[in-house]
Amino acid sequence: MGRLFWKFFFAFWCALVSAGLGVWLGLTLYERAAAGNSTLATGPRASFMADTLADLLSRGDVESVRRVLQTWGQLSPDLQALFIVDAQGQDLLGRPVSAVLLERARGTALPYSPTQKPEPWFSAVREAHSPNGSLHLVFAAAADRALDSGRPLPVTSHGPPPPYLPLAAGLLASLVFSALLAWHFAKPVRLLRWALGSVAAGRLETRIQPLMGDRRDEIADLGRDFDRMTETLQHHIAAQRRLLHDVSHELRSPLARLQAAIGLARQDPAKMAATLDRIEREGQRLDRLVGEILTLARLEAGPERGPGEVLDLAELLADVVADARFEAHAVGKSLQTDGLDPCPLHGHVELLHRALENILRNAVSHTAPGTTVEVRTTLGSAAPAGRQVRITVCDRGPGVPSEELEAIFSPFHRAANCQSGVAGQAGQSGQSGQFGQSGVPRGGFGLGLAIARRAVEAHRGAVRASNREGGGLCVEVRLPLD
Question: Is there a contact between 40 and 175 (Cβ–Cβ < 8 Å)?
């Protein structure tokens, strides 16, 4: 169970306990006030004793009554509160009797009858007539009023507290805890609402976690998830803007060369053939760039639609290696592979061919002259996801700074050593196979490795890069076979 559950649980539990305590306190005060108002005892026990004494008095046996009173008083202190008062207000045992107590006894007295007895909770005061005609009041006083000598009754005696006091106490306690609970949960919800409105207005730098303080519940987790979401959105939008800028820059260069070639053709018609060749090359370059961008956009839009087909990965890899070996030999480099047994795979031939070709050409273009690009293949069956094939392509180039090993799979990325004039490996692969003096393929746009990763991921695989000991870069491709 989550932390939010326990907050709700303990909040409601505290509210119920507080309400219960309030009701209990109210009832206790009510009972005490009611007890303070009752100077006369009631109940079956008091009625029984009053009836017994009244019966003895009605028979004229006063001495027996006196002995009974004395005996009962010795048996229990509570029974010392039994009074038998004559018409002059004198107790049979000579004890002082409160005037207030006596007045109330006279106001609630009932004539004694051996045949008709009142309800025990109504009154325990009896009027008894002795054979000589004298009248006596028989009653039992409350224990704390037994020997009251006429002191004034407390304020509570003016009447019991209102019966709605316990309900009001419980209601007040529940209102307090409900208000605290509502405030505790409404505040972060208001913050989330404000943050959502801020992001909807385009302010992607909005973060909510610092405003939530030290909360450690599910709402705080929601705030952290919101911050991660806005950070990802901010990153993607920044990447889209950067991509748009890079595409514009890549398109501007061949267009500028086209315009220059057209201008030269107009100035010197004698060089028209060479100028047209240049225009044709620039047109082809533009066509390749647009094709790469469309391929990348299609892959980023989601996995390839359609069922695909069953292909032999070993045969596909052999074709790609043969083409890359031909291009490597043309620039004084070599390519070595350990071969792969027939390996059926369900996927899209064009995408996988493009991915492997881009990775191999990137390695061939950046490995040092006279060195060898190594292609190793491994079949595994102990992977958590099932059987898979691993293809590793390693070169002997300058490698990539460790902080950019992940960035080289981003569109139009150039590694720092590539930007500084060294033939660094920055994903500038996947083009025509024509190489310049530096070994960097002409026509590279920095889209090759980006396309390779997305093509492999479309087949539920993964691509990662690591620097090689002794110099160079290794790119590992993992593809599931199940």
Answer: no
Alpha-carbon distance of 307 to 287, in angstroms, equals 29
Coil, strand, or helix at residue 173?
helix
Question: Where in 384-454 does DSSP place strands (E)?
Answer: 388-394
Give CA–CA dist 433/357, Å, rounded: 11
Whole-number pLDDT of residue 42: 64
- Predicted pLDDT of residue 234: 87
List the one residue out of 312, 318, 320, 389 whose CA is nearest residue 343: 312
The domain at 44-152 falls in which architecture?
A: 2-Layer Sandwich (3.30)
Contact yes or no for 180/187 (Cβ under 8 A): no
Q: Which CATH class is domain 308-480?
A: alpha beta
- Is the confidence at residue 65, as pLDDT, over 50? yes
Q: Which fold has domain 227-299?
A: Helix Hairpins (1.10.287)
CB 225 within 8 A of CB 195: no
* Paired tokens of 454: 């997305």
CB 289 within 8 A of CB 329: no
403 vs 113, 406, 408, 462, 467, CA distance in Å?
108, 7, 10, 19, 11
CB-based burial of residue 248 (10 Å sphere; 0-12 exposed, 13-18 middle, 19+ buried)? exposed
Ranges of each domain in the chain:
44-152, 227-299, 308-480
User: DSSP labels for 353-388?
Assistant: HHHHHHHHHHHHHHSPTT-EEEEEEEEES-STT--E
Predicted TM-score of the model (pTM): 0.49
Kind and range of the H or E element at 473?
strand 473-480
